[in-house]
Amino acid sequence: MSAPAPLHQYLIVDLSAGIAGAYCTKLLADGGAEVVKVETPQGDSLRSWSASGADVAAGTDGALFSYLSSSKKSVVVDTDEADRLGALLGSADAVIWSRESPFATVESLTPAALAAAHPHLVVTAITPFGLEGPWSDRAATEFTVQAWSGGVIGLGRGAPDRAPIHVGGQIGEWFGGAYASAATLAALRAAGKTGRGQIVDLSTLETAVAGLTYHPVTFLEMRKRPFRSERSIFVPGVAQAADGMVALGAATAQQWSDLCVLVGHPEWVDPEAPLAITARAGELAPQIYEWIAERTVEDVADQASAFRIPNSPVINGANAADTAHFRERGTFIKNPTSGFSQPDRPYAMSAFDLPRPEAAPRLGEHTDMLSEHRETRVAADTPAVSGLPFEGMRVLDMTAFWAGPSCSHILATLGAEVIHLESTSRPDGTRMIAGVPMTDELWWEKSPIFSGLNTNKKSITLNFQTERGQELLRELIKTCDVLVENYTPRVLDQIGLDYDAVRALRPDIIMVRMPGFGLDGPWRDKAAFAYVIEDASGLTWLTGHPDQNPVEPYTIGDPNAGIHALNGLLIALAHRDRTGEGTLVEASMVDAALNVAAEQFIEYSAYGNLLNRQGNRGPVSAPQNLYRTSGLEEHGGLDEFGRDDNWVAVAVETDAQWAALRQAIGSPDWATDPALETAAGRRSAHDLIDERLGAWCRERSDDEVVSTLWEVGVPVAKVMQPHRQADLEQLRARGFFAQVTHPVNGTASHTTLPVQFSGEPGGHTMRPAPLLGEHNTEILSGLGLSAADIEALEQDRVIGTKLAF
Length: 805
Known about the structure:
Elements: E1 11-15, H1 19-30, E2 34-39, H2 63-68, E3 73-76, H3 86-91, E4 94-98, H4 111-117, E5 122-127, H5 142-149, H6 171-194, E6 198-203, H7 204-212, H8 216-223, E7 237-241, E8 244-248, H9 253-262, H10 277-293, H11 297-306, E9 311-313, H12 324-329, E10 332-334, E11 341-343, E12 348-349, E13 394-398, H13 403-413, E14 417-422, H14 448-453, E15 458-461, H15 467-478, E16 482-485, H16 489-494, H17 499-505, E17 510-513, H18 530-535, H19 557-579, E18 583-586, H20 589-596, H21 598-607, E19 624-628, E20 647-651, H22 655-664, H23 679-684, H24 686-698, H25 702-710, E21 716-718, H26 729-733, E22 737-742, E23 746-751, E24 755-757, H27 776-782, H28 787-795
Parallel strand pairs: 1-2, 1-4, 2-3, 4-5, 5-6, 13-14, 13-16, 14-15, 16-17, 17-18
Antiparallel strand pairs: 6-24, 7-8, 8-9, 10-11, 12-18, 19-20, 20-21, 22-23
Helix pairs in contact: 1-6, 5-7, 6-7, 6-19, 13-19, 19-20
């Protein structure tokens, strides 16, 4: 008989609608939780959904629903008979709730009412702006939330002669759902300590800030300038080869130098300005693209890999399942309901198998369970003093850059002791992302990116290229409950620290490995940066204007990997809590990205339709686009950089919203055409609407457009510069930014977490990121070393507090 699944003890009631809630509960069901989806007699709207407009026959379900609802149960309850859910809620562990659900208007089913009636419940609310604050009831879509977050401009994404570009594929919904799953599991873990539930208040605006921007407010306040002020297309980026699209990256001086050699022009390297990559690459782009166009995708990728230049074929719905790396790793599986191809789970465990997905439920298939007798759960009268889910857990954080540290950052913020491992000769790469001259004193301590990703952590430096460093590393591992690493696989393999070796040191350890492309397969050793993961997963394919090559998001690939790795870790922790057994969690970056890009693979496999990029339009709203405004009055109609580059995002989801917009702009003749009263009519006339609505916006400031349309319930947003996030009153009201004082950098705003826990009423404690090697003495003393031993290690350069290049 097979062992119970890690999450088998949890009963989750799904009162959500849309992708975010559905993906959250899919991840929980994949871990073995019993998920009961509550639907009205009309059924969840995703049952009839197809992003490509494929016909979903009556009596059948759309492919996306079949993917997201595998292994769940369905009960049907009308909104006026919510009392029928009483026994189910009384025996459940958690509820997933969203504002879009028809049940959201039922007074007894609001998060506050659920928590009051059932104090044992974890109630996870997924909303655009959070449950509280001045914007809590404002209209929003995933598209307008991206605009508010600063994620539409991101890291300068998009050519300056066109509108900025949002990240396609409704990515905010998927990322928000992954975050909601991890937050729910963390809260359930806390409930196991306190005996009481709580409200988990997740804002997708804040998850978009976390996933689509790179600590821009911290950068502005610490460095007194924006991280990036101009928009541009990264070169090479995505290029057309002889037989398809391929992407190459040159993010560092070394990569640019190697690229110049690769294309036969070493003389392009400017020794006087080795870091002036963007401008130089832009000048030479035609010759680079010509070199790529003369070769096949495979030839370009092979040659680039030989130079360690980040690269990938550009994956989409049509070519993903046939890609050799994915075939060899069994990345795609058959859907148990309809047989189409879908990504497998984003992580794998060595000690146990996750349950295989089962067919999605028919509408109301399990309604009879509402009449079953259930034991009512009772919350503890006197909860424990602390409900931090990871308190008492020691984590060795062998990660760098963005993906791994974003995972361990959440652990540290929620109570774990996280020890960030670096060496004086190989520090975390984010210490270099600051533009600080190396002549500055302690220049490596002045990175806003490192500061933002590593609050609440401790730092130890160990040169594990030395024998003594490896000995100490092994001793440190023995004291840790969890090890998280995101090196390329060969790094730990070369020093004999694969999972078997780590388990020999600490039998119950959970080791989370986050390789770019997995621990095996043809791409095992391929260099992995966020943009390469986006290229290799379809995220790039859906981003950009339809008449141009796709544009790399350059952001989401890293934090998306981090939040999926955390989900995998939480499942592994649930297994260890029950069995005492540790495990290896393989959570590759590309598998995480494929899961949030799943819709395009599903659409192609199920219907033969290839989803394509649509600029700033989308599959749900019509109209949906960015419209230029008259600019900032204080800057003479220009933006803060002196450019005519001010935009608003508008997205109309419903016929009622269209009627409100039409009236708000004065009911001009063109907008009163009866054909525009339906979504299909507006979609077919999208060019006309863009022209006329764009002209109306062009005559007004972004503030005027937003106030006019938002007041009548139309989803609208300013396209924010990322470094202006702290100006948003909603983020200020929710305390999303905390003031953190650093011994070198002074006080600056740092993001907390995009979720608030009612069981943590004081908010998140935020300590500054550690100085390099700041905790060497504390940690090594804990391993039994004397002061003399530690001094000798410093003299031998095994440890240190200053860089030693």
